[in-house]
Design goal:
This protein has one domain: Jelly Rolls (Sandwich), CATH 2.60.120.1440. Helix content is 13%, strand content 49%. The chain contains two helices and 17 strands.
């Protein structure tokens, strides 16, 4: 009986430390291991859940005050939440826009095919596919580490980083037209 009570308390106390589905539209799948989840508003996603959106799918998830808006045709893995010092979100392909405000003593980062981006107290847009990564910083300061070269870049608000596999990373301006498109691509 004691074990059952402990398990119940542990599971219910950890439900508040989970990515929660705030809204979604279109085709969205959530997968954890072999388990597929039916997406619904308010669903608490287990640690390590992989989100896959279809051509018309979008989803907004939240952990505390960190909000991630996932655009269409995206594959993203959400990290465990809780007391870990460093937490990594993996963007395999597609687009996200996020307002990242980590919990106390926590460091958030996003991993793409070519870079690792520190996203503490920032608002960003990211696009990743097999040919390039685009990282747009809308608020705060990003610290970007390039995988293959270990080069590090600081990207200020209003700037972005354009990454091609065989070219030098390029810091670019966030153009108003691009930012409007980024908003439209991820708004939910």
């Amino acid at each position: 009986m004691r074990l059952a009570v402990f398990t119940f308390i542990f599971l219910t106390s950890n439900l508040s430390l989970a990515w929660e589905v705030k809204n979604f539209t279109g085709q969205v799948k959530a997968k954890n291991g072999l388990q597929m989840y039916e997406i619904k508003k308010g669903l608490k996603l287990p640690n390590g859940t992989r989100i896959i959106t279809g051509e018309d799918g979008k989803i907004r998830v939240q952990d505390g005050s960190t909000v991630i808006k996932v655009g269409a045709s995206t594959q993203l893995t959400l990290p465990p939440v809780g007391e870990k010092i460093t937490t990594t979100i993996t963007l395999d392909s597609g687009r996200i826009r996020g307002s990242f405000n980590p919990r106390k003593n926590q460091k958030l980062q996003v991993k793409t095919n070519t870079a690792l981006v520190g996203v503490n107290a920032t608002e960003i847009y990211m696009y990743s596919d097999s040919e390039r990564d685009i990282i747009g910083n809308l608020k705060g300061k990003l610290e970007v580490s390039i995988d293959k070269t270990n080069e590090k870049f600081s990207v200020k608000a209003g700037k972005g980083l354009y990454l091609l596999p065989l070219a030098m990373p390029k810091i670019i301006e966030n153009e108003k037209g691009k930012v409007k498109t980024w908003n439209k691509d991820t708004e939910i």
